[in-house]
Write a structure and sequence with these properties.
This protein is mostly helical. A two-stranded antiparallel sheet has the order 1-2. α1 crosses α13 and α15 packs parallel to α18. The longest helix is centred in the middle third of the chain and has 42 residues. The chain starts with 7 loop residues before the first helix and ends with a helix. This is Putative ER transporter 6TM N-terminal domain-containing protein. Pfam families: ArAE_2_N.
Length: about 675
């Protein structure tokens, strides 16, 4: 698999995950010496890290500016200016709306739909201009010139504009994948139906339509050439680097969780509260206000929360990018079904790792409810508070060693996956590392068996944790407790209901954390085994031309004109139209509403009745309401063009741009539309 440069999110998230201090995960008694902190980074480097910029991001920023720059530069030529006349600005606009920065598969699909929409708009609007010129011809008195204002021609133009804008935006609301084609169609319609009021005959209309179509297609050609030949980025390249950052984030989440639990071993909420009060009295008020949201907020918890947000964001983006990558024709090693399997296994790791982070919310909620950050007003309350804290400290100390060892093992397993998939290069071994020989290094043939034994050891260590917890709370366990036994749990616990409930919650919390980490380690083991299996099958020996299967192509064609699952889509379309990205597509049967009082049709007359019943359903649908709103917004501006007193002023002052802004900015939700306008 070819090496790729990381996108912005994958790079920043991967870097965050790799920067976790591995020395914190070392078990007690380790002989490894603590290294001194490195030299603090410079302000410029800190700013660069916060911005999340990397070489690929800068190249994409430059790449997006190339098509409109070329369009404006070429317009300086007299030959080009003569060819496009006053429509040259549309070349630059279409080169931007072509979105040359998209990955190749997404770009080609969107560009194909854009070209179809443009050609369809040219054909429909040529018919509209024919109707306009005929209306002008039949309402102009004989002997008078056909130029100038004509109310009939203006009315026909307005009708065609209303109908096309309405139908186009109904499709836009019902099928979010047509977001950009509908925007381009709307711009084409707006230009045609405003300038069309001036055309005296079809000769002028055909000449205008030819130049308009050429302007649109020239802009698309610039975007296509830029996408394919200047800093080309394939969907698979994006997905592979996102997978790299995603795996590093998952490893970093486990490390951050372990570090957070270690910070809870000796935490004193009262001392933390006093420290924040001192900070509020000093200069660092902003930091104190930020960290005072919870009595147990520590740097480790803030690090875990920050990494959690980045991991979820990258998970969402990878979910949106994996489908175009499977549909792409490519030259590489992993096939489309390999991407499907890898993404399924990654999601199995994601669930328990995210579940582990909920321990932070549980502990913070308990601290807020029991007022751990406030000394007790009585001796009994203070003793109760101290008892709760001591129990928390004991639990965290009990989980320290197994969690530290397992987090290191999971990190090594993820490194093994990255090395085997050729997403990262294997690290160079130092002489000390080569002389150890205790644990196989990631990427070695015997690593899988070594990691499996570590997972089994962690599973058996849960017995030790439970035995020590029961010993600490003076709960005797039978010798055969971990074997088949008929003893009931009630016989093993104390009789005090209040203490029993409190101890039970502590025990279940401990078992919950251990089980989640165990499930995460098993999910990582499944991924490691799959990668090793594909390696033994020879999947990584040489590159080959990869064609998507017939099933993938069939789904692609259905997705182009049908409904797609765009839930939490991190794509470009979702940013423009968040309303269309919230509905989860569950299949045709779930989309079809059942009517218990109306049976399915059985004959021709009933089928005709079904068609008639669909008409009112269509006009009262959300998509129809959105189309009507766009028509109202568009005609609020366009009406100026169709009145005699203001038509010349409209065309001279180019109010057409206001109509274009409506086409670009309107979306199904009022809030998103307002944001886009702003």
């Amino acid at each position: 698999m070819e090496q790729q440069s990381s996108p912005q999110s994958a790079s920043s998230n991967g870097d965050t995950a790799k920067q976790e201090d591995s020395t914190k995960q070392a078990s007690p008694g380790s002989e490894a010496a603590q290294k001194q902190d490195p030299k603090p980074p410079s302000k410029l480097k800190t700013l660069w890290t916060k911005l999340g910029l990397d070489p690929l991001t800068l190249m994409l920023m430059l790449k997006g500016s190339i098509p409109p720059t070329i369009a404006i530069s070429m317009y300086q030529s007299r030959a080009v200016a003569t060819q496009y006349s006053t429509l040259g600005y549309l070349v630059a606009i279409m080169s931007i709306l072509g979105f040359a920065i998209m990955p190749r598969a997404k770009f080609l699909q969107t560009m194909a739909l854009n070209i179809v929409a443009t050609c369809l708009a040219a054909a429909v609007n040529l018919l509209a201009l024919y109707c306009v010129t005929q209306a002008r011809l039949h309402t102009t008195p004989t002997g008078r010139p056909l130029q100038g204002y004509n109310s009939s021609a203006s009315a026909v133009c307005a009708i065609w504009l209303i109908i096309q804008i309405y139908l186009a935006n109904v499709i836009r609301a019902a099928r979010p994948q047509f977001q950009f084609p509908v925007i381009i169609y709307s711009i084409f319609v707006s230009v045609s139906c405003t300038y069309g009021v001036e055309f005296p005959n079809m000769v002028a209309a055909i000449s205008f339509m030819r130049r308009l179509l050429e302007a649109f297609l020239t802009g698309f050609a610039l975007a296509t050439a830029t996408n394919l030949f200047i800093f080309p980025v394939s969907s698979r390249k994006v997905v592979f680097k996102e997978m790299t950052g995603y795996l590093m984030c998952l490893s970093g989440m486990v490390k951050a969780q372990t570090a957070y639990m270690q910070s809870m071993e000796t935490i004193d909420p009262v001392a933390l509260r006093r420290k924040r009060e001192e900070e509020q009295d000093g200069k660092d008020k902003s930091k104190a206000a930020k960290d005072s949201s919870s009595p147990l907020t520590t740097p480790a918890s803030l690090k875990l929360a920050e990494l959690l947000i980045k991991t979820i964001g990258l998970h969402t983006k990878l979910h949106a990018d994996i489908t175009p990558a499977k549909r792409e024709f490519a030259f590489g090693k992993l096939e489309a079904h390999d991407l499907t399997t890898a993404w399924r296994l990654l999601r199995l790791i994601f669930v328990p790792v995210i579940g582990l982070s909920t321990s932070m919310n549980l502990i913070q909620r308990l601290a807020a409810e029991l007022h751990w950050a406030e000394p007790g007003s009585t001796e009994e309350e203070e003793n109760t508070r101290i008892e709760h804290l001591e129990n928390l400290h004991f639990l965290m100390r009990q989980l320290h060693v197994p969690f530290a060892r397992m987090s290191v093992a999971i990190d090594s397993a993820i490194q093994h996956v990255l090395i085997t998939l050729e997403l990262t290069k294997p690290p160079r071994k130092t002489p000390d590392e080569e002389s150890k020989g205790d644990q196989p290094a990631p990427g070695s043939p015997t690593f899988v068996e070594s990691y499996r034994s570590q997972v089994e050891d962690f599973y058996h260590s849960k017995k030790i944790t439970l035995s020590e917890w029961c010993k600490e709370h003076e709960i005797p366990l039978p010798d055969d407790f971990f074997e088949a036994t008929s003893a009931k749990p009630e016989q093993l616990l104390i009789q005090d209901e209040h203490r029993r409930e409190r101890y039970q919650r502590q025990l279940f919390f401990t078992l919950y954390l251990e089980y989640l980490l165990y499930r995460a380690s098993l999910a990582v083991l499944d991924l490691v085994q799959w990668v090793e299996t594909r390696k033994q099958e020879g999947a990584f020996k040489s590159k080959k031309v990869i064609f998507p299967g017939s099933k993938t192509l069939h789904k692609w064609l259905r997705a182009v004109f049908g409904q797609e699952d765009l839930s939490n889509d991190g794509s470009y379309t979702a940013e423009m139209d968040s309303g269309g990205s919230e509905a989860v597509y569950l299949g045709e049967e779930f989309a079809r509403r059942k009517d218990p009082e109306h049976l399915p049709p059985h004959n021709t007359r009933e089928r005709v009745g079904e068609i008639i019943r669909r008409l009112p359903n269509f006009f009262r649908s959300d998509a129809s309401a959105f189309g009507f709103r766009v028509v109202c917004a568009t005609m609020t501006i366009a009406i100026i063009c169709y009145l005699e007193a203001s038509q010349a002023w409209f065309l001279k002052q180019r109010l057409l741009w206001a109509m274009i802004m409506v086409a670009i900015s309107m979306s199904r939700t009022a809030g998103q539309s307002t944001f886009n306008f702003a």
